[in-house]
Amino acid sequence: MSEKLGEKLDKKPLIFYTNYFLKEDGKFLNEKVDGVLKVLEAVSKEKNSTLSQVALAWVIQQPGVVSAIIGPRTVEHFNDNFGALDVELMEEDLEKIDQVSA
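Above: the chain's sequence. Below: its structure in C-alpha cell form.
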C-alpha cells in the first residue's frame, strides 16, 4: 500500500476537488460536473466575475435559501466570495445553470 492514489489510477496524478477527481488533462471523471463547470465558466465570463462568485450567486437566488455558508481559507477567498453579492444573474443565466445541474 505504498502506492499513491494517483499512481494507482492510470499512473497519472490526480487532484481532489469537491468530491470528484480531476485528471491531469483538466477533464473531470464525472461528465456532469464538467458540464456544470463549463456553463459556470461561460456565465462568469459574461458577467466579468469569477466562477465561485457566479456559483454562490446562483445558490443565493435559489428558492428557500436564506444564506449561503462559505468557507474561505484566506482574505482573498473571502473577498472573492463576498463579490457574489454584486453578481446579477438574469433568468436565462439561472435556467442555463439549472439545466446542467439538475
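The radius of gyration is 16 Å.
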